[in-house]
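Worked example 2:
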Amino acid sequence: MTALGNESASAPRTTPLYEVHQDLGANLVDFAGWLMPLRYGSETAEHRAVREAAGLFDLSHMGEIHVTGPQAAAFLDYALVGHLSRVAVGRARYTMITAGDGGVLDDLIVYRLGDDEYLVVANAANHDTVVAALTERVPGFDARVDDRSAGYALIAIQGPEAARILAPLTDADLTQIRYYTGYRLTVAGVSVLLARTGYTGEDGFEIFIEPGTDAPRVWQELTKAGEQYGLKPAGLSARDTLRLEAGMPLYGNELSADITPFDAGLGRVVKFEKEGDFVGRAALAHAAENSRPRRLVGLIGHGRRVLRSGHEVLCDGRTVGSVTSGAPSPTLGVPIAMAYVDGGLDITAGKFTVDVRGRAEDVDVVELPFYKRDR
């Protein structure tokens, strides 16, 4: 996912739910070229609603790119690091698109909608980069890259009550929809792609709506169905603290063109076993076989001061890394952060601190994630 505060030079676009957000009194901000709700009221209350009940998110700024044709599977095996030809129809995979040198251009979720049809979901700020890279890589394959982002809306419902709220509104048996799947079904009488993934660490669903003009109807029906369960609309701020607790990377912070999947501890998404070449294979093979220059870890503060991106991480007074994302954790009640530290560092030895505006703040270095839901 992409970092907050990435403002565009031109006027931001609005999603099909813009008027809904206005009616709810949302604080709207320019995010990746879109006017998006940062919060509706208390971001802490929105965060806790997702952990304890359910939250409703507008994600219509994300990119939706269809890849179709007899060689769609072979093309995606070449263009991305994952083994997409092995994904069954109805299933999804988290994967990445890298440059030739192995640097991450974006992290993606790819849904296989049919034998010769895939949906590639890209981050808003990287949408143009992903479309350009796929278009550049498709010649030589009997496949088509079709950017249909402008026609979509995307709503996510996340939290322990998400399935209970959604169940009466869909023709699907939600008990049969597994994690990382996506099927064409109906919600609130609207034809949608209903997926079960998420970016919060909770159970939940993504509802892809094309055309996006039907989105306000779906949002309102979900809102009504969720009233008795404590459903709240949730903005970008809550989404960021939720994903941070769950140890999920944010593009522009934990992921970038200077970072390989192995640096980020996500080397598992690179599938060297697939046949043939793929973009970045040689560089990624080198990264896999050699010691990592950096390692992504979690930090838990001892005090109350917030750990922020760019703060230096020190071990026994020596700089060993830098914070990439940080915030107070509403669930844990302490400051938390993710940071890259030296790859060979022993995180069990030494006194670790973070330099917060010239003051050393004691921290514990831990493995990610900070939070795991009860399954």
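Confidence is low (pLDDT under 50) at residues 3-8. The domain at 291-366 is CATH 2.40.30.110 (Elongation Factor Tu (Ef-tu); domain 3).
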